[in-house]
Amino acid sequence: MSEAVPELVERTEMTRRLNAALSFDARTTAVITVDCHRGHLDPEIATMPVAPEAAASVVGNTARLLDAARAAGMSVIHVILVNRLVDGECEAMQNPFWRSVEEAREMLTPDRPSTISGHNLEGSPQTELMPQLGPAPGDVVLRTKRRLSIYRETELDRVLTERAIETVVLVGINTNTCVLCAAFESLNRDLQTIVVRDCVHSMYGDDLHFFGLQNVARCLGWVLTADEVVEKSSVRR
């Protein structure tokens, strides 16, 4: 017997009020791109692809946001997954769930082919940042992300501390995994955490993209559009 799908809990008024009250200082704010690499966002070579129309939307909106963020004096940090080879095998295969998916000949992407064992291998073009997003002079690029976390085994904590960052603006892939993990971990660091609704998406499906945004807005931080972030960054408080 299948489990009944629960109805969505209505919290629109809560999120509206929180978003309206939100303020931040561009000088202590960092926009962090999460896995905005060709392995997700370039339909020609992606090994774990987001739907092409969603990928194009994320890249276009993110490029516009980053231009405005740089102009406003925000830090821009790109965190990119790179899988090393361990004994001739992709290190992601050390994870029991990911290995089981491959051994069962299943895919994490429900609507298009993908590979875990061949995803973002070190030295591959899939690990390149989407060229529309930079890096621009002054951007920071961290290329030691190994799992879902943007903090584990990277220099992100150090960079945020050195720049006295108080607010993080999260964009990228996937809404329900790496971006959601980043939101949890940023909240745990007492950082003001914003996820940009039209600059994130998920290869796992629209339902989990929606779930990820709901989880952030109701539990972890703020969900804004790119235009709303730009508008708030242009106001000095």
Could you characterize what this model shows?
Strand 7, helix 7 (206-220) and strand 8 form a beta-alpha-beta unit. The protein has a single domain, classed as Isochorismatase-like (Rossmann fold), CATH 3.40.50.850. The chain is built from 8 helices and 8 strands. It is of the alpha/beta class and 237 residues long. A 6-stranded parallel beta sheet has the order 5-2-1-6-7-8. A two-stranded antiparallel ribbon has the order 3-4. 35% of the residues lie in helices and 18% in strands. The longest helix has 21 residues, at 52-72. The mean pLDDT is 96. It is globular.
Brief synopsis:
Helix 3 packs parallel to helix 8 (226-233). The protein has one domain: Rossmann fold.
Descriptive keywords:
two-stranded antiparallel ribbon, alpha/beta, 8 helices, 237 residues, globular
CATH topology: Rossmann fold
* Proportion in β-strands: 15-25%
Proportion of helical residues: 25-40%
What is the residue-mean pLDDT, rounded to a whole number? 96
Structural category is alpha/beta
Any chance you could write out the topology, listing elements then pairs?
Layout: H1 12-21, E1 29-34, H2 38-41, H3 52-72, E2 75-81, E3 85-86, E4 89-90, H4 96-103, E5 140-145, H5 156-162, E6 167-173, H6 178-188, E7 192-201, H7 206-220, E8 222-224, H8 226-233
Parallel strand pairs: 1-2, 1-6, 2-5, 6-7, 7-8
Antiparallel strand pairs: 3-4
